[in-house]
Specification:
homodimer; alpha/beta; five-stranded mixed barrel; 15 strands
Chain lengths: 348, 348
């Protein structure tokens, strides 16, 4: 899944350059490239499908030159995760209905890839043997109010799911953390193609009808116009809300492999290497004085001299400079709106 | 006089783009252009001489296309104001020894140009009638410790000078301000060419010998090589220290015409139009939140979103970003040194 527009990292992320194509942590590779390399040890390149907005098709192929253009499924508009997953699942069904399918976001951070792959391997075996919708859970390390939580029903490695709770308030998140029965929802799913399609049929019948009708056009000239019509008609809904919360064959495999959805500058800060004054700065060209606990992002070859900032985000790009206290990063949305109001989409 | 290198406005000013060629206050014209236009109502264009470092010759002609190349006198190296003024004075002497000469910095701000010109007019009359070295003083408005002070001996409009005092400490500056006998030294001088040359002969005889020897080469092929040799040999010294503090025919005309040497970002801040939160920002493209008493300078077409800064200087250029509390602007020298150490002269 690589369709996100990602305004949360503006001005570094843009409508035409969302987070999955960026290297916000300075690792040398984009998130989508890391995601590909993480899975290519389990899945042959020709078995990948990337679902993205059509405006990112070229970007996907640029970051993943191993893929053929027909492996990039283009959404005309974003309709949340259920239609995105349906597009891929109904496409895969025409090729191999017995196949197992791994669904993953393309813009997450995973630090321990070996552990991660061994868990995914386990999940694939379980999915092959059971008619199960399997999700990967993350052992929570803090009462984060930005994540979805999944309650497990036992302490088996792969446990039946009791219930889903989206973004709890802090008090509830603290209770979840203490009680030990809750894990974070990573948005990574493993199932047989036939299993998820049965679930669509039952819980999202309209989507089932629409995407079934697409199958005979796949690979033909009318595929794009059919997909266009389907996305225009189908309801935007998440796979969690549309299927996972309703189905009774949902399981979770909880893992610890250094996961983050890197959804905020705060989380980028958290996962970046820091200097001795706790600043997360580029390896080159950043000269700090009396500056602590700040995060700085600069264009290539630009230098910055920063004095007297405590806990700030400084993001400089070719056409936009943003300076903002780390505690105020939720205001980025407001900043974007104001810039849009005055300047149109030019800088967005 | 347009030879200054002006590192105090780094990163906006550069070795190859010093302050006199910049429009730091956002007026639409560079300082040198304003200076030219201020004087061209009193002096015909063909009578201007600009003394500058040879690396700025093209810049001078670009900002003052009215001048011919031979009106730009090129110093091979900066040697402070006495050699600069000598180069111009000994050049003028070969053309018209009876001429009056106005010496002015090219990077100062003057708000009330009509009053200024009427004072310069008075000074020209006085200089024509007297064998006097006349300087323009500024009625001080605060105990500034960054300026030179001149003590007047009476309350005549044009008064004999009692003494010069360079950059006093705060206590002394406060005394100067209270006593009422002191004015700021603007660095603007008016005299007859013959009068200043007599003063060189008497107070800076080495300079007199060197620059006299130059006169026969003016306009010939060997002018540049002679000037090269003279500047290599002659002592760097200011006209104030070398001549004005020693001569006994020094007069000052005190004026009030909204003058500033705009020597620091603090002074740019002071002279800039402010928004209602006392921020001095570009007319376009700067969006501030919870930000007060700060000054922002941006490249053309760049936008900035700044949140939570109080009393900061933010200067963004194509290759350098500087963020620094206004109170720490004296550190700019240190910043430059660090950047030089790591990156060489590239960004300086």
């Amino acid at each position: 899944m690589a369709g996100g527009v990602g305004t949360r990292f503006w001005p570094k992320s843009r409508q035409l350059m969302p987070k999955q194509f960026l290297d916000i942590l300075g690792t040398g590779k984009s998130f989508i490239r890391h995601t590909y390399e993480r899975f290519v040890e389990l899945v042959p390149p020709e078995n990948f499908l990337v679902v993205t907005n059509r405006k990112y098709k070229d970007l996907v192929l640029e970051h993943l030159p191993e893929l053929k253009p027909e492996q990039v499924l283009c959404e005309p508009i974003g309709r949340n995760t259920a239609p995105c997953i349906a597009y891929a699942a109904y496409t895969l069904q025409t090729k191999n209905p017995e196949a197992e399918m791994i669904v993953t976001p393309s813009d997450h951070l995973i630090l321990n890839e070996a552990d991660f792959r061994s868990i995914i391997g386990e999940c694939l075996v379980f999915a092959a043997e059971h008619d199960a919708l399997l999700t990967v859970g993350i052992k929570p390390t803090r009462p984060d109010t930005g994540y979805g939580y999944i309650q497990v029903s036992d302490s088996q490695p792969i446990s039946k799911v009791k219930c889903f709770t989206e973004k709890p308030n802090l008090e509830l998140a603290q209770t979840f953390l203490q009680c030990g029965e809750f894990v974070w929802n990573s948005g990574i799913f493993i199932w047989k193609v036939n299993t998820i399609i049965k679930a669509f049929e039952r819980y999202l019948p309209e989507h089932h009808t629409l995407f079934s009708s697409m199958q005979q056009t796949l690979g033909t000239e009318s595929e794009q116009s059919t997909v266009e019509k389907i996305f225009a008609e189908c309801r935007a809904i998440s796979i969690d809300y549309g299927v996972m919360e309703k189905a009774d064959n949902v399981y979770v495999r909880c893992g610890e492999f250094g996961w983050s959805d890197v959804g905020t500058w705060g989380s980028v800060y958290q996962h970046s290497r820091k200097d001795r004054y706790a600043n997360a700065i580029p390896a080159e060209g950043c000269y700090l004085y009396d500056t602590r606990s700040s995060i700085v992002s600069l264009p290539k070859d630009k230098i910055a001299i920063i004095s007297g900032l405590k806990e700030y985000i400084v993001v400089d790009t070719e056409d936009v400079l943003m300076i903002c206290p780390r505690a105020d990063e939720q205001n980025i949305k407001k900043f974007i709106d104001e810039v849009k109001f005055h300047k149109g989409d030019k800088h967005i």
